Amino acid sequence: MDEEKKKEGVSVKEIEGYAKRHRFEIFFCILFILSSLFTLIFWGPTLSIFLTGIGAIVAIFIPGKIDQIAHKMSHMVLSKEATTQLIFGICALIVGIFLAPIVFLWLGLHAGRSIILLMRESMGGPGPSA
What we know:
Elements: H1 12-21, H2 23-43, H3 45-61, H4 63-78, H5 82-98, H6 100-123
Helix pairs in contact: 2-5, 2-6, 3-4, 3-6, 4-6, 5-6
């Protein structure tokens, strides 16, 4: 009977391990949740939807540039030490709270870039540098 005890709850060590393995997923989920909530409070959904669409349209026409900028930004952040990365993350969360439409513009840019590159790849066309 004692051998069949069920484990109840999750230990702090397991949570820390999960957070270390999935830090980017957790960060972006928090960023998108905060941006979604605060866009409703401060800005209203209209501006965010409009900027998402504008970002996607722009990125469809210049996916190579958007790809280069995204790679440079991620490389810049990831090449820094952990404390500096934490500061960048906190700044991004502050932007997500007070300037939520900027996060939606960024999402639109990445969505447009991803869609057009996926279509080009599926058709056998040029890659990101086009």
